[in-house]
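debug: dumping io for the single-chain case to check the tokenizer round-trip. Nothing else runs in this session.
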Amino acid sequence: MPTDERKPPREVQRVRDMPAPRKSEGAAGGAAQHIFAWPYRAVLAFLLWTGIRPWQLTLLSLLLNIISGVLILAGSWAWAGVALIFGGMFDVMDGSVARHRGEVRRSGAFMDSVLDRVSDMVLFGCLFWYLAGQGETLEASLALVTLVVSLAVSHVRAEAEAAKVALTEGLFQRLERLSALALGLLIPGLMLPVLVLLAVLGTTTALQRSFLAVRGA
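debug: decoded output
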């Protein structure tokens, strides 16, 4: 005889019971930890209730960053900024969901790191392409510099970890980089100052991490 097997109801996670976001070592880490503490808890509780897996959030983040890049090429910068914000949110939450469920895996961290680099290349590559096509040589050059230094910042950390040097410090990391880019996309006329900021502070961060890696090796 067939049995009536019902799935257990999903456990509703209370927002106040959710852990606070981890503090980033970057310039905006402390402020972001306090300002977005309750929104972070609410989003985490909702994601845990849906049962979504960390790897699915990682892929959603990549997809939204690709959509943002396509919208940049189309000149729809405001919508590109919105897509970037949601992509960044999923990028933050995949690790949080994995830690809460005890599903932290080296494979997941590797996948997240690689796809973050792909996202950076898509975003700043599309921005460079669009600005160059518009004849905005200075802005396009700064976008290209930002792409190079963002990859350099991540590469220095990877090489340091391969040399058994723990390296989390950095003035301007991915959180700061994407937050600044989102502002540049959402606020008309702000892209040039944002790109100057990204190029200068990104280069500073790459040099900072290189110095710390050499000193700790």
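debug: round-trip ok. The first helix runs from residue 29 to 35.
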